[in-house]
Amino acid sequence: MAASQDSVPAARKPPTILDVASHAGVSKSTVSNVVRDFPGVSESTRRRVRAAIDQLGYRPNVLARQLVQQRTNILGVVVGDLANPFFAEMAKLVERHAAARGYTAMFCNTEGDSKSEIAGVETLLEYRVAGIVFLTFSGDSRTMRETLQHQVPVVFVGCHEEWGDVVSVDDVRGAKLGTRHLVDAGHRRIAFVAIPELEDRSDVSRWEGYREALVEAGLGPEVRISWSPPSDHASVDGIDRKLVDVFNGPDRITAVFASNDVAAIALQEFADRVALRVPHDLSIVGFDDVPMAGLARISLTTVAQPRDELARLGIAAIADRIEHKLKGPPRTTLVGVNLVTRLSTAPL
Amino acid sequence: MAASQDSVPAARKPPTILDVASHAGVSKSTVSNVVRDFPGVSESTRRRVRAAIDQLGYRPNVLARQLVQQRTNILGVVVGDLANPFFAEMAKLVERHAAARGYTAMFCNTEGDSKSEIAGVETLLEYRVAGIVFLTFSGDSRTMRETLQHQVPVVFVGCHEEWGDVVSVDDVRGAKLGTRHLVDAGHRRIAFVAIPELEDRSDVSRWEGYREALVEAGLGPEVRISWSPPSDHASVDGIDRKLVDVFNGPDRITAVFASNDVAAIALQEFADRVALRVPHDLSIVGFDDVPMAGLARISLTTVAQPRDELARLGIAAIADRIEHKLKGPPRTTLVGVNLVTRLSTAPL
DNA sequence: ATGAAAGCGCTAACAG
DNA sequence: CTGTTAGCGCTTTCAT
Question: Which of A6, A107, A166 is the mutation pick for testing B, counting most B CBs within 10 A?
């Protein structure tokens, strides 16, 4: 094989609709009509045009089309951490459902940083995305709302802000379910654990659910642990402590409700490291039901979110909004959660 | 708050460069010059224009710009399974490095299906992406090559095809390393496990490395297990068998080299289920070193790929190709792997 | 049934 | 230093 054959050539200019037109001996409008399957085109010309298209390898330029149509089929998807298995799966599902409805997804990973969240959204807006799907909203609601106001439809999937459509689980209910499971198992000293980098509005609701469950059970006080794995320290009710101390001593925490599975699994890992036995010394409940949670070796009790349903309804909501099938004030759709009981929890 | 305030309004038409121009009392070229930080613009007009931009909330229309410039800053990223933690992490890194070099990533999940791979690439091509990054290439090389030929630069990151730039680890060497670790531990009956849905060119190389390690050690024959978790059966050297039987009896397999961590962890899970002890009854080596592999409860011995380096070099390669800083025939860049020894392997 | 013409919002010469 | 002009590739009236 000659070297020249193997060389990577400068990208050749792709054929335009005009090339096809002259090749087929018709006007460009006719080509356009054929491409878009517009009715009134005679069978013979249609065939001729099709032939020219195949021959030249013509592919319509979406940018040009969308420029004249004044709207794109691009959906911006904002996600905090693609490496978090929950979001990875959601991203995949969102992409699939978007494609099924004729939209192309443009992702934007924000690292949970409100600065890059704004920057990402700005980029999406420059591409004139038809809508934005937030899988995480970690940012500053005020600023974001200002930059987005009246620009594009927005849907929050698995998270919530009151200024856009929402499709999510009832986080309060879910957290209550998870915490109550611990209460029912006889635990009295139950803490809430969150990873600060990932905190958003959902965490607030989950904290709320946790709190309500404690109150209803006449338990208290609530204990909030803010922990960045794999650190040995954490902020417990706002003050810095050695994490291991929290789980030892007479007043020790015997069970934890984590605001998501990543936090829960990190805590389990921590427990293993410091020779705390789960669930014997410490029961752990997570939130999300990431695939990993189901592994026998992890076996995490957790509150499962119906990921596919979230993605499907989320895309449906924004597509309907874009296509003006849905009008009026923001709508919230809540889907059910259910507790998956595994081996990370046990009676006290 | 009035209901009308909360309603989701029809997207307002965003201001154009002309609006800004008239607002600032200059021509649109001047606005354009300001936006693009073009030198020769007087400080006073620059300020006036900037003011108008802020006031109107003007945001350049990237589509229009890229249409006239005849090139986009969009990078297409083709990935087989975003939910696979290795690819999720790679996707995230690729997005970040792309952004750092001024490109926007457009992802396209193929489910390892060559049909949707083609469809996805077609879509990317319609958007006139500046280049395509393959994180997986599961497809039909022939067809793909035809559709891409002379269209856009292509880079294969962590996978390889000879018709584009490649940035990957030396899969053969990596697999040899992993397998040799088993050989050195005294294992004599070592099998190769792959999940058919995820197989691609890398798997072929990894099989090759596995084979070479066996040959060099004077061991054999090689055994290839093609398994779809969590099935109880698998194709062993082409014939269907109960998977558990492979690891029992006098001629039992005592160690396995899996073509990736997902397969390895699935196998470990299977072993747990059928009461095979890892590593006592069965040693397992994976490939990738996904974050999960490092959890104490998983503790998978595996061949680690330097993900960030792969992503960085991959983006550098394609960006250089796009920007004509790199010319000539396809180039292959191999980066080092290293074996991470954990508790899933032990001497026979 | 087909073609001509007017833009979509922007950049990039080129004039002034 | 600033404005004028000619497109980029396409869709969309409106004639023919």
Answer: A107
Bridge partners (DSSP) of residue A285 are: A257, A301
Band of residue A147 on the pLDDT scale cut at 50, 70, 90? confident
SS3 call for B115? helix
Interface test mutation site (partner B, options A5, A6, A8, max chain B beta carbons within 10 A):
A8
Give the start-to-end residue ranges of the domains of chain A.
Answer: 9-60, 71-169+307-336, 171-305
Fold: same for A9-60 and A71-169+307-336: no
CB-CB contact of B75 with B130 (8 Å)? yes
- pLDDT at res. A138: 81
Tell me, which fold does domain B171-305 have in CATH?
A: Rossmann fold (3.40.50)
Average pLDDT over residues B132-161: 88
- The beta-strand segments (E) located in chain A are 74-79, 104-109, 131-134, 154-157, 165-169, 190-194, 223-226, 233-236, 239-242, 255-258, 283-288, 301-304, 332-335, 338-340
Amino acid at B4: S
Does A258 have pLDDT greater than 50? yes
Residue ranges of E strands in A195-324 = 223-226, 233-236, 239-242, 255-258, 283-288, 301-304
Q: Is B9-60 in CATH node 2.60.40.10?
A: no
Phi, psi of A241 (to 5 degrees): -140, 160
pTM of the model: 0.93
Residue in A14, A269, A330 nearest the CB of B6 = A330
Residue A18 identity: L
Please, which residues have CB within 8 angstroms of residue B276's CB and are 6 or more apart in sequence? B244, B247, B282
The class of domain B71-169+307-336 in CATH terms is alpha beta
- B252 SS3 class: coil
For A128 and C14, how far is CA from C1' in angstroms?
A: 31
**Sequence letter at residue A118:** I
| B76-97 residues labelled b (16+ CB within 10 A) or e (exposed) | bbbbbbbbbbbbbbbbbbbbbb
Residue A5 CA and nucleotide D1 C1' are separated, in Å, by 49
Q: Which bases of chain D come closer than 7 Å to a protein CB?
A: 1-5, 7-13
Has residue A118 got a pLDDT over 60? Answer: yes
Task: Tell me the C-alpha to C-alpha distance, in Å, between residue A57 and each of A15, A20, A37.
Answer: 7, 9, 18
pLDDT score of A201: 83
User: Would the pLDDT of A11 be above 90?
Assistant: no
DSSP B39-53: S---HHHHHHHHHHH
Tens digits of per-residue pLDDT, A329-338?
A: 999 999 999 9
Q: What is the pLDDT of residues A262-299, one digit of tens each?
A: 999 999 999 999 999 999 999 999 999 999 999 999 99
Residue that is written with structure tokens 């004030």 in the block: A329
